[in-house]
Structure prediction request, 305 residues.
Amino acid sequence: INTGSGGSLSNSSDAYNFTVCDGNLYFITGDNMGYPQKIYKYTGSGEPTIIKESTYLKELVVLGTDLYFVARNGNSDPVANQESLYKYTGSGSPTALTGSDLLYVDEPTVFNGEIYFSAMTDAYEVKLHKYNGSTVSQVGTTDVCYTQPSFKMDVFDGKLFLGATNGSDGYEYFECTTAGSFSMIKDINTSGDAFNYHLHNGNTYDTKSGTRIVTTWGEIFFIANDGTNGQQLWRYDGTDAKKLDNVGSEPWYVENGNYCTEYDHDFTSWNEDITQLFEFDGRVFFQGNDGTNGKEIWAYYPTTF
Prediction:
């Protein structure tokens, strides 16, 4: 795609976010040190074709036979140049959805047949928004998390699971119903935030402890900090959220009949908190440091085996 030669970054295509939509493969490339970025479409034969070029592209997501993504309208400065949610029907040019031209549009997520996403308003408040197929509207008044770089929304038990604050209990994990009602699943950190989340210079959010959210065995797993034990693995069954005690403290251990084991790969030690959550084959994989073996890969088995 990038026809330059040599092994430098400037000669790399840097393709990522591979997504299949309506029988075609889509992906984003950086082409030259990240700018300009392009979305390519590959039909299975011939050469990939460009459907969109921008200084900033991200988050390919599929709803039905349509492809949605976020693009910046201008240069690389998100404060001076708003972002929009775009829709591509498979032919012609992608179109920006009216009303989605906001700051920090991020993490479009399919929920109840609609596209939900977080975005910053003119008042520098991050709110949940949705696109219902014809219009973009704000969902409730609750402050939610700007999800980039690592905090992710997910759908669980017919509700949208995300980070938010009610203005008094810090940033915690919330559920949002299709009616736009927010409820905190548990006040995990009663003296602060369940994950590090703060505002820089009035316009840039940082989620240093943000995490992927994964679902398996009818439960949702996430990482949270209760203010005492650091970042730990938690599970939520739709009724109650519980911390998995001693995860990462021993190479093998049993917790309520469930097993966790260490996958012995040598990583440079970073901290003793749990990070990098992922689900595979019914198991929850993550990085953790037990204080003895350094930063290793662990797997949690949600059921006895």
User: Anything to note?
Assistant: The two ends are 47 Å apart (CA to CA). Confidence is low (pLDDT under 50) at residues 198-210, 248-272. The longest strand covers residues 258-267. Residues 1-101 form one domain.
